[in-house]
Design goal:
Layout lengths: L10 H10 L4 E3 H8 L3 H8 L3 E5 L2 E5 H47 L8
Antiparallel strand pairs: 1-3, 2-3
């Protein structure tokens, strides 16, 4: 798997685009375009999925790529759910604290002579 996974949030869109293609194999330029990657990152992504090499150019089987991405789609969904739960827990834990800070902050800017 490539080190940079900037495309992981777009797995669903990439899969949709792959399903619409009528070719059986994809070459590097198509991978670059689909994933929004530069040459080296596209090659790293392709390396474990290469199905053929024609004239020194790697080819990736579209079906195999889709199956590989479907695994990421599930993983990305689970990761997003975990992220949402952590954020909710943090907000629940710190919202009262933040509310108190705002009250203290506002009261420190009040003019003490104007208090009733």
């Amino acid at each position: 798997m490539p080190r940079s996974s900037s495309w992981r949030h777009s797995v669903s869109q990439i899969l949709t685009a792959l399903r619409m293609l009528d070719c059986e194999e994809l070459h590097r330029a198509q991978i670059e375009s689909l994933f929004g990657l530069q040459r080296r990152a596209a090659l790293r992504l392709m390396a474990p999925l290469v199905s053929a090499s024609r004239k020194g150019s790697w080819q990736v089987d579209r079906q195999r790529l889709m199956e590989w991405l479907e695994g990421f789609e599930q993983e990305a969904s689970e990761e997003e759910n975990r992220h949402r739960l952590v954020l909710q827990a943090l907000l629940q834990k710190h919202v009262p604290y933040c509310s108190n800070i705002n009250r203290v902050h506002r009261s420190s800017h009040e003019d003490p002579t104007q208090r009733t």
